[in-house]
Structure prediction request, 194 residues.
Amino acid sequence: MTRRGEVLRERARFLRSFLEGPGRVGALLPTSQRTVRATLDMAPVAQARCVVELGAGTGPYTREIVRRLGPDASLLAFELDSALARQLAAEVTDPRVQVIRDSAANLEVHLDGRRPEVIVSGLPFTSLPGPVRREILQAAQRAMADDGVMLVLQYSPFMRKELERRFRSVRRRLSLFNVPPAVLFACRIPEGAR
Prediction:
C-alpha cells in the first residue's frame, strides 16, 4: 500500500473511532507529523529509559517515539478504544513497545516499578469529566521520574491553568499547521511535590 493509502486508512479508522466515542477521541483527524515532531522535540525522548504514551490512537506519536527511542528503552502505549489498540498492536511490532488497552488512570499498575522520564498525552482532557482528568494527571505525576517531563497536546488553551497548578514549569507552543491547530505543553513536576 502507498503512503497516501496508509494515511487515508489511518484517517478513516480515526474518524470512525471519533464518531463512536467523541468524548474519548479528541479530534476528527490524527495529529499531523509536523505537530508530533514539534511535541516530541520538547523532551529528551532519545535519553529516556521508559516512555509512556496516553491515548495512542492510531499511533502517530507511537511511531515517532519508536524512531527516537534508545535500544534498551521501553514504550508503554495506552489506548482505551479496543479497535484502535488492536490495530496499533498489529502494526507496531517493535519489541520495545507494549500496547496496553486500559485507562491512563491505571498506568502505575503497568509500570512494574519503572519511572518514565517522558509521558506523552494526546488525551482530550477538556472533554473528560473533571474527576477522570484529575485522576489521570495525578497518576502521571506520581509515576513520572523526578526529572521527567509530561508532554500534553490539546486543541484549546483551557488546560493551561490546571497544568500550571500541578507542575513546576509549563512551557507552551502552538502548532498552527495541525487540523485543528494544537496547543503543546511541556510540564515538569513541582519541586518537593513527592
